From TrEMBL:
Gene3D superfamilies according to UniProt: Cytochrome P450
The UniProt record lists the keyword Metal-binding: yes
MF (Gene Ontology): heme binding; iron ion binding; monooxygenase activity; oxidoreductase activity, acting on paired donors, with incorporation or reduction of molecular oxygen
Cofactor(s) the protein needs: heme
Keyword Transcription among UniProt keywords: no
Official protein name in the record: Cytochrome P450
PROSITE patterns per record: CYTOCHROME_P450
Sites where the protein binds heme: 419
Organism (species): Sphaerisporangium melleum
Amino acid sequence: MTNRIIDDRRVRAASRTVNSRGRTAEPVPRPRLWDELRGTFAMRRDQVGFLNQMIADYGDIVWIRVLGIRMAMLNHPDYFEHVLVRNHENYDKNTFLFRAIAPILRGGLIGNVGGEPWRHQRRTMQPSFHRPQVAGFAENMTDETSMMLRRWERQYGPSDVVNVSTELGQLAMRIVFRSLFGAKVGARGKVIEDMFFEANQIACAFFRFPLIPLTWPTPSHRRLAEIIRTMDGFVADIIAERVAGGEQHDDLLDAMIYAVDDVTGTGLSEEQLHREVLNLIIGGYETTSNSVSWLMYTVGRHPEVQERLHAEVDSVLGGRVPTFDDVFRLKYTRMIVDETLRLYTPAWQTMRSSIEEDVIGGYRIPPKSDLYLNIYALHRHPEFWPDPEVFDPDRFSPEEVAKRPRHAYIPFGSGPRVCIGKHFALTELTIILAMIAQAYRVVIPDGHREVRPEPLITLHPAGGVHVRMVRR
Ligand code: HEM
């Protein structure tokens, strides 16, 4: 008996380790062999379903194996806060996900591993995204949305079924382009816009089957490299024209050309500038484009929510075009945006790698471990979100928000690497939703099927959102 107790203690002592900070910790649970093996195939067929099953079977932290790579999947607000905020210095982006897309992002802000090179870039670019700058971009958002709505009026009748995902994708692209390059970007801008759409499709196809690296010269990967070279050339031409012209421009490109890092006193090299422009287009297009599509879907499916939305935009705006200050008055509109970003969070997964050994929530994380941050599942954690699949903007009333841990909801990430475009995106989504609601009632056509989220780089509405736009 005594021996058994001693043996038990030995077994537990072997699996509990004391980490460098002197804390004892349990090993991260390992799944059964079958669950570990089926990961790669299940991820191809039904990635979200497989991950949800792993959480249901093993809890808020578990090792998973994806495409042969072992990762600890996290699904608790405290764990996210630990990795992204409290001990963020111990985690970088040297992970499979960011290595796979490195040929596109090329050391720009999104996929930069971390450390001093990332800090320099972030310090240099951050001032371009402060509140007064975003306020300036609000006019691009209202102008472009007004133009789209005028076109809709000519083009669509109340019985037409419109693929709003295509329409709103173009709108999101125009807003990013105009904010970066100004209104006078002209015909060249259109060519680059089309190329970017093509590049995005190649990148999405890669994510459906990420076994052939982007560096392998398949015909589509060669085309992607060609598009990136053309886009670099386009940015180089604009920079050369600006430097030669000497005029000031009120756009992001000018802000970044002249931006200086307060700490080092240096700016971005021309090569770095090319990369950052592409990173901003990538970061700012896919995510917002999908979000506005999902907004049409959630609003269309919930007429009672749409009634309250109409009442708010009518009383706050009284028929005029919204300004940046109105965004803070459109409180219910923003609650709809928040709840939509909870259920259909565009950046639905991210990854980190541990530098040194650490303990997360009592579990030992070995050095150089890949962590899989499952934001999609976090936003449905039943402990913090009762009836998680139900769409209910009232979850975002100030009283309800105060009841939840802050890291139960992180559509823009958190900590030092929080999305640089967060305020830009929230302003854009609120303005677009308010302006569409001023003019139209969104109606889901009879017999329209449920739209399934397709988990690619971002969470796409599979097949697009199709609605009828009925003039109010
Ligand atoms: C609904 C819209 C958006 C969502 C949901 C979103 C989400 C995110 C998330 C979750 C991250 C952090 C990823 C991580 O920690 O691994 C991030 C980073 C980033 N986002 Fe966004 N984003 C949105 C819009 C934008 C816009 C409009 C821009 C630019 C105009 C942008 C540019 C970036 C950049 C450059 C980063 C990297 C920041 C860094 O690491 O320092 N995003 N975004």
